Every structure is written in structure tokens, then in C-alpha cells.
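task queued by scheduler; priority normal; single chain, no ligands, no partner chains; default sampling; output format set to C-alpha cells
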Amino acid sequence: MLPLSSDESMSNKIEMNTVRAIRTFPSFPIALVVVGKEEKNIITVSLVHIFSFNPPLVGIGISPCRYSHELLHRYPDFTVNIPSKDLVEETLYCGVKSGKEVDKLEETGLTAISGQRVEAPTLEECPVCFECRKVQNFDTGDHTWFIGEIVSAYVDESYDRERALIYWAGEFRTIGELIRSR
């Protein structure tokens, strides 16, 4: 575990071995994915999965009708940010509004922190952040899977996986607790 050596703070997050950090990944996670640099966008993604431990790969499934789909084809990297239950409203907002029409960072008050090893920013408020370099994409039915190698992982020191926001069948939950229906 290494402290960050950047001018920008990531609060209580510590850099962690990627395999160890992957084990913090909740079942049925929901993620706030950030893509882009100048024209960055946040998209709420429920199709998110670990594809490999060695190398550490995470995949996100994005519909071609989404603005982020276009950006993911244009940019070489993205970040996967796992929100806690305290971010349910921001998570819902980023899933129902288009980044073509609104600045989701401004509207939600989420804080973009420059990536340490990628151009896309992470989100200060999320307790788990993965910086990913895109290594592959492929179409499967009505979604494109973008696979990213996790090149850097940050986990808040007080992170409790049971507080991670998960999504299933139209409900935002934590393990054992319904937080909000859609």
C-alpha cells in the first residue's frame, strides 16, 4: 500500500495491489464510469464485471445508443468508480440524464480528480476507483463490452464492501438493505 505522490488528494484512499483491490468488488455492483478528458462524461453502469485477475481486467457493457459509447470508442481509457449507498441519488441521476445535454459533474456536485495513470478522472466521493486502459471491445447482443486493464486501484481505508451500492431488478441496495427503488 503506497500513499499517493500527487498534488491532488484522494482523501483517505490508498493505492493497493490490483488483485487485492479487485476482491473489494461487490456482487452485482453498480459503477459510475468516467470517460473522456476535455468532454468527460459519467455514466451509471450495471453491466460491470471482473474478467481476469492476471492481468487485472474489468469489463463494462454499454448500449450503442449511449453518449458514453461514442466516447469509449474515442478515448483510450476510463475509470470505474464504485459508489457507496450515500451516492444513490447521484448514481440514479448519472444513469437517467445524457451527458450530451447536461454536465453531470456540475449537476451532481461530484468531484473529478485527475487520474494518476490515465487521462480520465476518478470520482473523489467513491470509495473504490479503478483506472483502466482500454485493451479490447466487442459486441454482444445489444451492448458493447469495453475491457480495461486496471493499471491503478484506489480504495478508501475505511471501505466496507457491505456498504457498496448494488443494483438488481430495479432496486438500489446494499447487502441485505433496500436503499431506493427506481
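post-processing summary
- Residues 88-96 form the longest helix (9 residues).
- Helices lie at 18-22, 67-74, 88-96, 104-108.
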